[in-house]
Design a protein that fits this description.
single chain, 4-stranded antiparallel beta sheet, mainly beta, 19 strands
Length: 245
């Protein structure tokens, strides 16, 4: 058991998101009040400083609380309301984004993101549904597709399995104590009013306030954390991973 904690870490509040880089063995964490993205060694333990820090006015970061990592192409994606800021994985200090997607006139409005580096897609969860962009999209470029099913508009947290092109989204349509949450599974090639291909953990199950979603491909499972349950649940769903190695 290890814990990264203490003043040297520069943590300022509860962490709402993080990403792991399997290429570099590093952990990336957004810092809401510090307007920064912190990167730690994968083996970090105790009161340790980050190995890199994206911070300063040139970054245009404002209260970041989520991020997505493309570990294949070495890029960090940070949702910022109307826009998505993209940084090189090697960025350290006060550096401008390498590109920006979205504007007030053409907003992304993605609260959470996930990257499919195999099919070259950026997926954003928004009030309009799941927006699927080119990975290299910038400026006012429009999404290639938008999944507009009513439950896709309730997705708050995202992950993906790039090899199969599947999107796993935590659907949160109810209040904190209503058992209506579940993990919906869509394809990156879905478009329009398409229902999820699979529903994991509900509705009507244990989930009522999902706060994290991850996949364990080897064991054909979806892992979900829930704030109201105050626990982490693993759902064995081999049908979703059939044929996936």
């Amino acid at each position: 058991m290890r814990a990264i904690a203490g003043q040297n870490t520069q943590f300022t509040r509860t962490i709402h998101d993080m990403a792991y880089d399997p290429v570099r063995d590093e952990i990336l964490i957004p810092q809401f009040f510090a307007f920064s993205i912190l990167t730690f060694a994968g083996g970090a333990n105790g009161n340790v400083a980050p190995v890199r820090k994206i911070f300063g006015p040139s970054t245009q970061l404002q209260n970041p609380q989520a991020l997505a990592l493309d570990w294949i192409h070495g890029e960090i994606f940070v949702p910022q309301g109307d826009r998505v800021l993209v940084f090189s994985r090697d960025t350290n200090g006060d550096s401008a984004p390498i590109r920006i997607l979205g504007s007030k006139e053409s907003p992304v409005d993605g609260g959470r993101l996930t990257i499919d580096p195999v099919h070259d897609f950026l997926i954003a969860a928004s009030g309009d549904g799941l927006k699927i962009y080119r990975r290299l999209a910038s400026g006012e470029e429009k999404p290639l597709r938008v999944i507009t099913h009513k439950d896709a508009k309730e997705v708050g947290l995202l992950t993906s399995h790039p090899d199969s092109g599947m999107i796993f989204g935590a659907v949160r349509p109810g209040g904190r104590y209503e058992k209506e949450d579940y993990v919906g599974v869509w394809s990156v090639f879905d478009n329009g009013d398409v229902p999820p291909r699979w529903a994991v953990g509900g509705p009507g199950g244990l989930l009522s306030d999902t706060r994290g979603v991850a996949i364990d491909v080897k064991n054909k499972s979806v892992i979900v954390s829930d704030k109201t349950v105050n626990g982490v649940m693993t759902f064995y769903v081999p049908e979703i991973f059939a044929g996936v190695k």
